[in-house]
Design a protein that fits this description.
The structure is a homodimer of 501-residue chains. By secondary structure, chain A is mainly alpha-helical. Chain A is 64% helix and 3% strand. In chain A, α8 crosses α15 and α8 runs parallel beside α21. The first copy, chain A, is globular and about 70 Å long.
Chain lengths: 501, 501
């Protein structure tokens, strides 16, 4: 092995341990820790973060990475680790430590100001903090951007390398052109989709049992994973032998937990399938936010909302809830779980409207960072766009511009990954169907061939290959949003019995 | 503040964070982690342990502690932190690193050899490893001991400062003289204690509910604490605002979980009551193993097995289990939970026999370390003592000398703390009764005055005062085992209607 890489390994192991500790504290805070523990625990988490920072940002690691950037005897996995650590180190070093500390302080304050403002429906209380936050984001993007690059493109690059405005503008334009009218046609026929049967009382203990079974059914390995409860469902991992998902159960909305299980299960199976040689290294996780989201959305929507998926699964669900679902036929169940309803809240959106929620945020972020939209004009701009694209107008900022936490954390350029994930999923689905009789697998209740395909083409590589390369190699072509448009158009035209153009 | 202490603080915070992370990993392994995660997680835990070692064992901390040992402007809390860190550092530095690593390796191997040997009832497989382990323990004790000190006293000093053989020999002699005959008289009358009613089926979900209620009743604060499940009940803490206990439920032994709740609750309340200025420092935990055990045993036995305690609580238990307990009167319930039965397994022992199990281990350890008992002679010596003191003889080593994990971990000198804890508890109880109408508090269902007394006299000091000092100040006299003898004699003479001498 390259001598420098050998030396780097001890630093990597230290970082891996500290990051795992931070992950475990996060997990514990969301699932277990007592309410009054947080303040004292935060001090310890702060200490561990500092140790993690020092483990990367020091002369020895800097010199090792400089030399390793030139090395020609690294394995692909080692080269990826070096590339990722260099990017992380450079990003940190470009920002003056004083400014970074001020940003972290603002971030902590901004999220709590935001939470308060949301609770009180008081955008004015949040506006000055948001303006400061945008100031920092622009300043830092200025430090990081390549010559000639726009500030927003520099931010986009942090989340999804290679997906600049040049790629995203036509993607969202296509969505606007095709999906906005499709949604309007569908929504007009919603009277025949009555979800009240899914609003009966579904005992939570039984839901838990069913969802545990369902997680195992789709391929979540309980020998290497844990399923717990938290306020909002999420996935996290310590390494590929310890991947954890959470759920949240609602007595009168049985489908919520079901689709959380399938969604988080999709994320988790990705992490469980990362190669052993990568786990516990910086190249150990999924390739990018968008690629991760593609795996959860593929599992949740392409598979989990399909008729074929529910053919063997729905009878099982009925066994758990014979009284509630007795009269609801499989076909009707599948119609209901696919109902497309324009709504105000992104996190509650259905498959068809979801990308439009993201589109609105993309347009606004772009104008806030690269354009001249001011924070004062933001609520109005938000509401106008909801009305134009979704046909619904927020009655207050709480269900409007204040709904998401992201901007208060300084995350600009992250939202597009949610839409990209869906588009990647559709492109991957198209490619998979050339190799595999996907629906037949679903009907047979055997998802293994599907998981094996994903593992072989995507999961095992962790972050060794970048998202765009993975997509190219797995599907045989570069990013092509047309598959997503086609998928949605075909599915919802059929579901809503719309006239084809 | 003393400048050196100020500087030391940043090191202390680092250690506190790393130790909290290690504690959290332990907790997670026992309560949550998936079965196949352990191997990869162990690597991370090893890394964090190394970081913790380096945080203490380095030139800067060494020099700071040297100077601080001479400082005269430290608060009692600061002085305690310096004393504890110096002791820890010195202990580590006296052992050559190479030998310490070899010991750690042996330790890891020995516990798994022991587990295997226990499973196969094969002492011969364990004997050579145990002999090696004793070799290391003697060697390390040799490095640590003060001039003229015996090796076993040096070990005892690690767990319970000031409780040398000179103190323990008369303590155990008194137990042997008084408790062995008392147990024999009681055991002869056991026919009238029929526990079968407690062996009915007690639904685990209901047990959980009741034990959660019970934990809160005795004073466990769920805003600052968590109760979960694990194979063996234990208590752990991240700081005084995050204290955690576990339990294990047996469907056909309802009292097991109940007394685990009260026992671990006693440990937990101690930790919750440590002063805020001490938590997250090395002086933040309980004063010693023995003092900790005194708090759990006081809660479990002196309070939790008393008639007065159950007067308000038993009706509540009956509400949960009306069918199982309907015909069992309070008096009979209290008799059954106090039944004294000579048995082979320490962890299942009742209040009266428990100290005799410990006495046997004390005698054997002393002879193994300071005397000439060989490992080969150990099983026979073990069995002979069980027969002599408890009147029962193990039929195999699995229920004999192989039952405890401690020796395989190299813990010699730890067992006596278990017995000391009981004796401290009796001495504390005696002192408390001078200030408080303890039984009246119990009858009224208000344990707060009892907790307040313990907090004021013991808990809040953390490790600022040593155990023997705490005991002296809380009870007005030095360690006096007579209170324990009197307590047991009075309680079991009455319970078993024995003739008084």
């Amino acid at each position: 092995m390259n001598q420098d890489y050998q030396t780097l390994t001890s630093h990597i192991e230290k970082m891996a341990a500290l990051r795992a500790a931070l992950t475990l504290f996060d997990w514990d805070t969301e699932t277990t820790a007592p309410p009054k523990s947080l303040e004292l625990t935060a001090r310890m988490v702060g200490q561990l973060s500092s140790l993690d920072f020092e483990a990367l940002v020091n002369d020895e690691v800097r010199k090792l990475l400089q030399r390793l950037a030139e090395a020609d005897d690294l394995t692909p996995a080692q080269a990826a680790v070096v590339r990722l650590l260099r990017k992380e180190l450079e990003n940190m070093e470009k920002i003056p430590p004083k400014e970074y500390r001020a940003f972290c302080e603002l971030q902590a304050r901004a999220t709590s100001v935001w939470a308060q403002a949301k609770q009180n429906d008081d955008f004015d209380a949040f506006a000055p903090v948001l303006a400061d936050m945008i100031g920092y984001v622009k300043k830092f993007a200025g430090y990081r951007r390549k010559e000639g690059q726009s500030l927003y493109d520099a931010e986009l690059n942090e989340y999804e390398e290679g997906f600049t405005k040049e790629v995203l503008d036509p993607f969202f334009a296509l969505l606007k052109e095709k999906i906005v009218p499709l949604l309007k046609k569908a929504a007009a026929k919603n009277a025949s989709f009555d979800k009240s049967v899914l609003r009966r009382r579904f005992e939570i203990e039984k839901q838990k049992e069913f969802n545990r079974w369902l997680a195992g059914y789709i391929g979540f390995d309980f020998d290497r994973g844990v399923m717990a409860e938290s306020e909002h469902p999420f996935t996290t991992e310590l390494h590929n032998h310890d991947v954890r998902i959470t759920n949240h159960y609602h007595e009168e909305a049985v489908e919520n937990a079901i689709f959380s299980t399938i969604h988080e299960g999709g994320h988790a199976i990705y992490e469980m399938n990362v190669a052993d040689e990568l786990t516990q290294t910086p190249a150990g996780g999924g390739a990018s936010c968008g690629m991760h989201e593609s795996q959860s959305r593929f599992m949740e929507n392409m598979l989990g909302r399909s008729h074929a998926f529910w053919e063997p699964v729905y009878p099982k669900l009925k066994e758990y809830f014979p009284e509630q679902l007795g009269e609801l036929a499989l076909n009707d169940f599948v119609r209901l779980i696919n109902k497309a309803e324009p709504s105000l809240i992104r996190t509650e959106a259905d498959e068809l409207t979801y990308c439009l929620h993201v589109m609105i945020r993309y347009e606004l972020e772009k104008e806030l960072i690269d354009g001249d939209l001011s924070v004062e004009e933001l609520p109005q701009a938000w509401n106008d766009r909801y009305e134009a694209y979704l046909g619904v107008r927020p009655q207050n900022d709480r269900e409007g511009v204040l709904q998401d936490i992201h901007w208060s954390q300084g995350s600009f350029g992250y939202f597009p990954s949610y839409a990209l994930g869906n588009a990647f999923a559709a492109q991957i689905y198209h490619a998979m169907k050339k190799d595999l009789a996907v629906e037949e697998c679903l009907r047979n209740g055997d998802l293994r061939p599907i998981r094996d395909w994903l593992k072989e083409k995507i999961h095992r590589f962790g972050q060794v290959k970048k998202t765009r390369q993975l997509l190219r190699e797995a599907t045989g072509e570069d990013f092509n949003p047309q598959y997503y448009i086609d998928y949605l158009t075909e599915k919802f035209t059929k579901l809503y019995e719309l006239e084809t153009e």
